[in-house]
Every structure is written in structure tokens, then in C-alpha cells.
Design a protein that fits this description.
The complex is a heterodimer. By secondary structure, chain A is an all-alpha fold. Chain A has 2 domains: 57 residues, no CATH class; 223 residues, Orthogonal Bundle (MetI-like fold). Chain A contains 14 helices and 2 strands, in the order H-H-E-E-H-H-H-H-H-H-H-H-H-H-H-H. In chain A, strands 1-2 form a two-stranded antiparallel ribbon. In chain A, a hairpin with a 2-residue loop joins strand 1 and strand 2. The model of chain A has no long low-confidence stretch (mean pLDDT 87). Chain B is mainly α. Chain B has a domain of 189 residues: MetI-like fold, CATH 1.10.3720. Helix content of chain B is 78%, strand content 0%. Chain B contains 11 helices and no strands. In chain B, helix 3 packs antiparallel against helix 4, helix 3 packs antiparallel against helix 8 and helix 3 packs across helix 10. The chains are: A mainly alpha, B mainly alpha. Chains A and B meet through helix 2, helix 4, helix 5, helix 6 and helix 7 of A and helix 1, helix 3, helix 4, helix 5 and helix 6 of B.
């Protein structure tokens, strides 16, 4: 049964406006322009100022005094970052740790995704949910769980001592090992997921053809499966590597005094030293460092979101 | 398919990987019932930490604050993310579309410290220029969370939009349906599951965020992760174990319900072959 509503001119006009393409496009566009792109411009601006004791704690770039506009650009923050070996060590430490964690994630995550994609259909959904579920609980709490396990009086040390393998507790918490372990643990689902979506679409007939033609299974894997899942591997690696470089919570909770990571340094510059310009310069350099991985990821993601249509 | 060595190796890895993911959470749950304050000592079963948790005013008010922010952020993110997904999957020739798609995918990987810092600087600048926001707090966290959650919603919804059969929409419009009505009568019911899962995902992301909220929050608004973080920094605390257990149980329950509903929908679809 259909009721016919006679549209009044007003609702007609409202409808026309609401479903205008420009409106559909404009609302999210303006929102992201204002709350995503513009903030980066501000970070760049403030990285070029010098810190002062004021609210907000930086000098203005543009000043209008006596009918003259003066523009003060200070590149001192960047020079400062270059001159202090602490910052360079922190960048290097972050990249190294993130890279190591990404490789470990890939080594664990790929076989997991492979087994999931080959599992019977009704199992796949359950396995998928099981891999994703931890990432829906609290990230903070999952990192915190390792504090109780790795500590000197923690579960792992007590267990190893009970087994008689060690006499004294091993120092595991507050080391770089703990940081890598924490990153692997927290980001593993993000590695498994894109590889799984990629592998599940793989044409099984290719594998069958290869084995019919006498290809050994390991050769088939290297020659067909692995190259065809390249996109998934790339996406997964970027989803782990890029956020891991800027990670703050994991080095803060699991790392030790010798753990130098840029996310933590930036946090301390901002919250402890209240040096906003240096924190901004740190962020800009980090962004430049991550530009290539971010562009790579964006290209993959844009393709994923646009196909068919 | 040929059963090969690598096949069974991957199966073993899957089991080990899942154990690796779940054992630490299992440990948290077990130790939340420990009577002793120490992690390594088991002093018998007790639910005292749950009692203490429910008497902790600070945690309770932070939970309420976080739930409200997550609700508002997820709802707004679903609106914005769906619009983005529409633009990306449907408006192929729109000018500025590439810029929009860059801006919506970047938050997926952007390190949180950068997003947090940049948004804080924006709010400070806005307060100077237009006098808003006077105090940072719930509203600023809401804006920050909406922005990065929209990205996740856009991914989920665009995946669903790609599968929508456009011919039904075209048929509706040929029969005189306005685009808006077509959207509400045809498209919306089809993408509704994606909107629900996008909303849930955004909700958990917002509930979980510590770094961005710490940057853009003011003295008035303390979210749950902030309370947990400041307590966890001091070391292991059984009260946090109890909280963790409640969170894990709640999320598992929702995931189980989601799985059940999906399985039922799948079976229904199989039973009606022409659908």
C-alpha cells in the first residue's frame, strides 16, 4: 500500500538541498579541511616560532605593529633537533623498533592469515572475529597485561624459576625487547586482517593448476601465493609500521630508560618541558620521515575503496 | 587442494598466534580474582577488587564521560564517514575528490601524537581567533574523535557500498523516486549492517583513545583511558585487572551476538536461493 504525500514547496527545496552532490561532498570535505589539514599547517607554523613564557607558549609569526607587517620565521628548532644527538637517536630508535616489530608481525601474521583463508567457510568468520576481538578491547589494558607478565616478580619469571631454568629473574620489563613484544602484540591483528582479505580472494584454480603441472607446494607458494598477496603484505606492514614509529603508550609502559622513541620524546617535550615549538618541529620531521610509507598506504587504500563502484 | 607441509605449518602458527593474543588477557582475568595485591602470589579467590572498582568515584565518572563521548563521536563519525564513502565510491568525477580521499585515509595510520598535537594547536588558535573553545573538554575530544573515527567508518561503509546493486536504485529512480527517497528506502537498508558495524568500531576506538584525548582535553574532562593510564604508570593494580576483565567480557559478549546474528543471516540467505 502506498500513501501519497503531496510535497509542499518548502520540503521540496529542503530535499533538493540535502541531496545535492555538493552538499554530500561539502560537509565531510569542510570538516576534514578544518580538523585534519588546517591543524598540520598550524603545526608547521608553530614549529617556526620560538618558545616564550606566555599563553599560548610561542611567539606569533605575523605581527602587525605601526602599520608594518613583520614576519618572524625561526628555523632554530630544526637546527636544534639536528644538533642534539638525543633526537636523532630517538628517530633512529623508533624506526628500528618499528621495523623489527613489523617484520616479526609479518612472520607471525602471514601464516595465521594463510591458515584462516584456507579454513572451511564456516570457520573463517569465527577465526576472523577471534583475531579482531582483541583490538576491540582496550589497547591500553592489553599493553598493561604485559607489565604483569614480564616484571621481575611477574608471571613469566616466576614460571621460569619454578621450572629451574633460571635462578635469578631475567630483566624483561623496561627493555627494548618488551617494547618490540608489546608492539607485535598490539598490532598483530592489523597485519593479519589485510593479508587475510587478500588471500581469501586468491583464485584457488591457479594453485591447482600449478600442482597439476607438478609444482611442489613450497614452490607454488613462492611463485604464486606470495607474489599475489603483495598488496595485502604492503597494507598490513604500513598499518603496523607507521603508527608504531610514533607510538607513545608502549615505550612509556614497557620501555626502560634506554628506550628512545620519538613519540615519547615528543610527549615529554610537550607535556613536561612545555616547549610547543620544539614538539611541533619533532612532529613535522616525523611526518616527513613517514611521508613515503603514508603515500604507499594511501594508494593501496584508495584502490581498495574505489574499485567496482 | 593439496594438503602440504606449509599448510599444516600455517595451522600451527594460527593456533600459536591466537594463544599469543589471548593468553595475556586470560592472565588479567584470572588475576582480577586474586585476593593478593601481588601478581606472582596467588592468595585465593576473591571479588574484593570488583567491589573497590565500583566504589571508585573517579573511575565511575570517567567511565560515564568516556561512554558519552564515544556515543556522540561514533554517531557523528557514522554520518561523516558515510558521506565520505559515498563521494569516494560514487562521485568519480567530483573535483577535490582525491584530496578528500587522502584526508580520509591518512588518519588510519597517522601516529596519534601528531594528530593530538595538531588538533590541540588548532583549538588554541581558534580560541585566540574566534573565542571558541574557551575551555577544552568534552566538545574538543568529540571533534577529535569524530575526525579519526570517520576514517574507519568510511572504510567499512565503502566496502559495503561497492557491493550494492546499483540497478535497484536506478529502477527506483526511473519509477519516480527522488534521490533522497531512494537513499532512505533502497540504499540505507542495504548498507545498514555496515553502518552498525562502523558505529560499533568507532565507539570502541573512541572509548580506547588515550593519546589524542590527553592532548585536546582540558582540566574538566578526564576519560577512562586517562585514569587507567595514570594508575598503570605506577605499576600493576588489581583494580585495573577487574576493570580489564569487565571490558573484555563486554566486548566478547557483543562480538558473540554479532557473530550469532551474522550466522543466522547467512543461513537465511542460503535457505532462500533466489534472494
Amino acid at each position: 500500500m502506498r500513501r501519497k504525500l503531496l510535497p509542499t514547496p518548502l520540503t521540496e527545496r529542503v530535499r533538493a538541498v540535502l541531496f545535492n552532490r555538493r552538499v554530500v561532498f561539502g560537509i565531510p570535505f569542510l570538516w576534514l579541511l578544518l580538523f585534519f589539514l588546517l591543524p598540520f599547517a598550524l603545526v608547521l607554523k608553530i614549529s617556526l616560532t620560538s618558545a616564550v613564557m606566555a599563553i599560548p607558549p610561542y611567539e606569533p609569526v605575523f605581527r602587525w605593529v605601526d602599520n608594518t607587517l613583520s614576519v618572524v620565521v625561526n628555523i632554530g628548532n630544526y637546527l636544534f633537533l639536528l644538533s642534539d644527538s638525543l633526537y636523532i637517536a630517538a628517530y633512529w630508535g623508533s624506526v628500528k623498533t618499528a621495523f623489527l616489530a613489523t617484520v616479526v608481525c609479518l612472520l607471525i601474521g602471514y601464516p595465521m592469515a594463510y591458515a584462516m583463508a584456507r579454513a572451511p567457510k564456516h570457520w573463517q568468520l569465527v577465526l576472523l572475529l577471534m583475531v579482531m576481538l582483541p583490538s576491540w578491547t582496550s589497547f591500553l589494558i592489553r599493553v598493561y597485561a604485559w607489565m604483569g607478565i614480564l616484571g621481575n616478580q611477574g608471571l613469566l619469571n616466576s614460571f621460569l624459576m619454578w621450572l629451574g631454568l633460571i635462578d635469578q629473574p631475567l630483566k624483561m620489563l623496561n627493555t627494548n625487547f618488551a617494547v618490540v613484544l608489546g608492539i607485535v602484540y598490539a598490532y598483530l591483528p592489523f597485519m593479519v586482517l589485510p593479508i587475510y582479505t587478500n588471500l581469501v580472494k586468491l583464485d584457488v584454480r591457479l594453485l591447482e593448476a600449478a600442482s597439476d603441472l607438478g609444482c611442489r607446494s613450497l614452490t607454488t607458494f613462492w611463485a604464486i601465493t606470495l607474489p599475489l598477496s603483495k598488496a595485502g603484505i604492503l597494507a598490513g606492514s604500513m598499518l603496523v609500521f607507521i603508527p608504531a614509529v610514533g607510538e607513545f603508550v608502549i615505550p612509556e609502559l614497557l620501555g626502560g630508560p634506554d628506550t628512545l622513541m620519538i613519540g615519547k620524546v615528543l610527549w615529554e617535550e610537550f607535556f613536561n618541558n612545555r616547549d610547543w615549538p620544539v614538539a611541533s618541529a619533532l612532529a613535522i620531521v616525523m611526518l616527513l620521515l613517514l611521508l613515503v610509507p603514508i603515500v604507499l598506504f594511501h594508494r593501496f587504500q584508495a584502490r581498495e575503496m574505489e574499485k567496482h563502484g | 587442494m593439496v594438503r602440504s607441509r606449509s599448510f599444516s605449518f600455517s595451522k600451527v602458527m594460527l593456533v600459536l598466534g591466537l594463544l599469543f593474543l589471548y593468553l595475556p588477557m586470560f592472565v588479567l582475568i584470572v588475576y582480577s580474582f586474586n585476593a593478593s595485591r601481588l601478581v606472582s602470589v596467588w592468595a585465593g579467590f576473591s571479588t574484593q577488587w570488583y567491589g573497590e572498582l565500583f566504589r571508585d568515584e573517579q573511575i565511575l565518572s570517567a567511565v560515564w564521560m568516556s561512554l558519552r563521548i564515544a556515543f556522540y563521536s561514533a554517531s557523528m563519525a557514522v554520518c561523516l564517514g558515510t558521506l565520505c564513502a559515498f563521494v569516494i565510491t560514487r562521485f568519480k568525477k567530483m573535483r577535490g575528490r582525491t584530496l578528500l580521499s587522502s584526508m580520509i585515509t591518512a588518519p588510519l595510520v597517522m601516529p596519534e601524537v601528531i594528530t593530538g598535537l595538531s588538533l590541540l594547536l588548532l583549538f588554541v588558535q581558534m580560541a585566540q581567533t574566534i573565542g571558541w573553545p574557551v575551555d577544552r573538554g568534552m566538545a574538543t575530544i568529540w571533534i577529535a574523535h569524530t575526525t579519526f573515527c570517520s576514517a574507519y567508518v568510511a572504510v567499512v561503509v565503502s566496502a559495503r557500498l561497492q557491493e550494492v546493486d546499483r540497478s535497484i536504485e536506478e529502477a527506483a529512480m526511473d519509477l519516480g523516486c527522488t534521490p533522497l527517497k531512494t537513499f532512505f528506502v533502497i540504499t540505507l537498508p542495504v548498507i545498514a549492517p555496515a553502518l552498525v558495524s562502523g558505529w560499533l568500531l568507532a565507539f570502541t576506538l573512541s572509548l580506547d583513545d588515550l593519546v589524542i584525548a590527553s592532548f585536546v582535553s582540558g582540566p574538566g574532562a578526564t576519560t577512562l583511558p586517562m585514569v587507567v593510564f595514570s594508575s598503570v604508570r605506577m605499576g600493576v593494580s588489581p583494580k585495573i585487572n577487574a576493570l580489564a576483565t569487565l571490558i573484555i567480557v563486554a566486548v566478547s559478549l557483543i562480538a558473540f551476538i554479532a557473530w550469532y546474528l551474522m550466522r543466522r543471516a547467512e543461513r537465511k540467505r542460503l535457505q532462500t536461493p533466489d534472494a
